[in-house]
Amino acid sequence: MRRKTSLTALARHELEHAMSAASGRSAATVQGGHDRMLRQTVIGIRAGESLKVGESPSEATLQVLTGRVILHSGGRQSPGWIGDLLIVPDAPHSLEAVENSAVLLTVAKRMPALPDLVLAAASDAGLQ
Predict the structure, then answer these.
(1) Which domain of life does this protein belong to (predicted)?
(2) 21-48 pLDDT, tens per residue?
(3) Which CATH number do you get for residue 39?
(4) Among 32, 43, 66, 117, which residue's Cβ finds the most Cβ atoms within 10 Å?
C-alpha cells in the first residue's frame, strides 16, 4: 500500500498520455476504487476536450492540479484554475478543458440505507 504519491508527477504523467490518446483523456486511480467508499483519480485531459458525465450517485470534488477547466451543470459554469477545488453537483454535468489540464477527482460513496428491520431492531434495543 502506497503511503505517499506525488500528484504533480502523476498529473504530468496522465496529461502526457492524454495528449497522445485518441480520446484526449487519461486517468489513473490514486486511492481506493469502485469497491471502496473513497476513490481518488487523477485525470489528464487535452485542451478542447470534454468529459460528459451523468448524475453522480456520490459526493464528489475536483481539484485542479494543472491547467484551466470549466465544470458545466444545468446552464451554470464553474471555472477552475490551478489549486481550485470545485464541488461536483448532484446533477448531470460535464468537464471542459480550456487548457491542457489535470484534475484530482475525489468521490465518496454515500452510505447505503439500512434496512427497516435493522433500524427497528436498533430502536427496540434503545440504540437509536
Answers:
(1) Bacteria
(2) 999 999 999 988 777 778 899 999 999 9
(3) 2.60.120.10
(4) 43
